[in-house]
Design a protein that fits this description.
mainly beta, 8-stranded antiparallel barrel
């Protein structure tokens, strides 16, 4: 029940991130799949941009457009079970997913969120956050990272999980 309430709260936060009047459309029309749906995401520990924490390939598939918001499904080549949904409005992209759907002695599940903006056509930067839910329902092992994304320009994506 706590996880369901948390998911609803996270969804409201995602939706509200699009309501800021400070977000304006760039001079080009960014899209996560036009020009290649395969992206490389490199993450860095916040405050230490020279220390790379990880690289992964992210692939997007457009699922719907409602008004000015484009919706996508995404998946990662890094983790077998990593993938989720993304929404884009103008140059702002918000990604959300649950990961590691496993039961072990310490953790039940984990969540990842990436909030980023196109900085140039085919390039983006933002923040990557993930955390795990302990067996007792508390949040454990949070990670706050800086993310850089670069379109690889080809559509040769690994299969969806």
């Amino acid at each position: 029940m706590r996880t369901r309430k948390f998911s609803r709260l996270l969804l409201l936060i995602i939706i509200s991130s699009f309501s800021s009047p400070g977000h304006s459309a760039p001079p080009y029309s960014p899209d996560l799949v036009t020009g290649g749906k395969k992206w490389k995401m490199t993450t860095y520990k916040d405050g230490e941009p020279v220390v790379r924490r990880g690289k992964q390939i992210i692939c997007f598939e457009k699922t719907n457009t409602v008004g000015s918001i484009q919706y996508y499904q995404w998946w990662s080549s890094f983790f077998d079970h990593d993938g989720g949904v993304a929404a884009q409005k103008g140059d702002v992209v918000v990604m959300y997913a649950s990961f590691f759907p496993f039961e072990d002695e310490k953790y039940r599940k984990g969540y990842v969120g990436v909030n980023w903006e196109f900085t140039n056509e085919g390039l983006g930067a933002g923040h990557f956050t993930n955390f795990k839910i302990s067996k007792d329902g508390s949040i454990a092992s949070p990670s706050y990272l800086t993310a850089q994304l670069k379109r690889l320009g080809n559509n040769d994506c690994p299969n969806k999980p």
